[in-house]
Amino acid sequence: MAMKLLQKTVVEAVSRETDRVRAVTLRHAYRPQLQPFEAGAHVTVHLPNGIRRPYSLCSDPGDPTTYRIGVLLEAESRGGGIGVHALRPGDELFVTYPANQFQLTAEPGHSVLIAGGIGITPILAMIYECVRYERSFELHYCGRTLQDMAFLEEIRTLCPADRLFLYADEDPTAPRRLDFEELLTGMSETTHAYCCGPAGMLEAYQRTAVSLAISAERIHFEQFSALAASDNRFGPAFQIEISKTGETFEVSEQQTALEALHEHGIDVPFSCEGGICGECRTELLSGDVDHRDKVLGEDERQRAFMPCVSRGRRRIVIDP
């Protein structure tokens, strides 16, 4: 697999959006513009502490002079959030070219944008794109309290009041929860829904869409929480064969395929280590796989494998 192209950037600004969310603005170290991107895109940030993490771009896609990411510092942070929150203006770091698995459809029609917590980041870029091209949209933004909602004042300047719906389920002044059945019932055939948020929110969103028989082509989502901190990456041992060399080795019960590949000197690019970014995708040539990622569609699972979280059953052959 080819290595991802990198851009050298400089931290232009760091701002506090909430008690736990920092926004970091990056510019190219040498050029007037960074690589262009579309709403929903992410980049993998190579942090000074050696950690690589994917973050959605939440800046205006129409302005390639800077990228902006918004990062939540979680209690169970494995170093990514800590590394981002430690950044200061003038720091230098590499980021990949943008990648996108969460695009707005090119079809005309209405867009229902739904965000939970830090899931607002790709959605914010979508708002900018909808405003620029005068596309019909509405935003449903969920958080514990209004004070926990990052970029809220910016969003209020972009969204018409009758298209902005806030749900603060623990706010003492305006407690309110999002009802997916109420929201999605009656969606027209030209309406697409986009949701980014925690796992429980996405499960409710997808479950409701299925119960309402909404076409999967009109239900889009992106999960920002990874599996890497859990035991879901582990399981029965299995064998990997490298097609080009014939080399075969075992992946132990308490080891990921990605770790085993690196242990045997096979340099597979990676980032999230949690099955959500797609960076470590390898070609699957044969064998049965227990797919645990959140990236591959059903049609892709016969020919691709995400070694950071997925596991083979007995023996698989791959072309990394």
Please bin the fraction of helical residues.
Answer: 10-25%
Q: Predict the CATH topology of the largest domain.
A: Rossmann fold
Distance between the termini: 5 Å
Number of H/I helices = 6
Q: What does the radius of gyration come to?
A: 20 Å
Shape: globular
Superfamily (CATH H level) name of the largest domain: Nucleotide-binding domain of ferredoxin-NADP reductase (FNR) module
H and E string: EEEEEHEEHEHEHEHEEEHEEE
Number of strands: 16
How many domains make up the 3D coordinates? 3
Proportion in β-strands: 25-35%
CATH class membership of the largest domain: Alpha Beta
Q: What is the residue-mean pLDDT, rounded to a whole number?
A: 89
Structural class: alpha/beta
Residue runs with pLDDT of under 50 for 5 or more positions: 226-231
CATH architecture of the largest domain: 3-Layer(aba) Sandwich
Subunit organisation of the chains: single chain
The largest beta-sheet arranges its strands as 4-3-6-1-2-5
Largest sheet, in brief, is: 6 strands, antiparallel
Keywords: 2Fe-2S, Flavoprotein, Iron, Iron-sulfur, Metal-binding, Oxidoreductase
Organism: Notoacmeibacter marinus
Domain 2Fe-2S ferredoxin-type: 238-320
GO molecular function, one term: 2 iron, 2 sulfur cluster binding
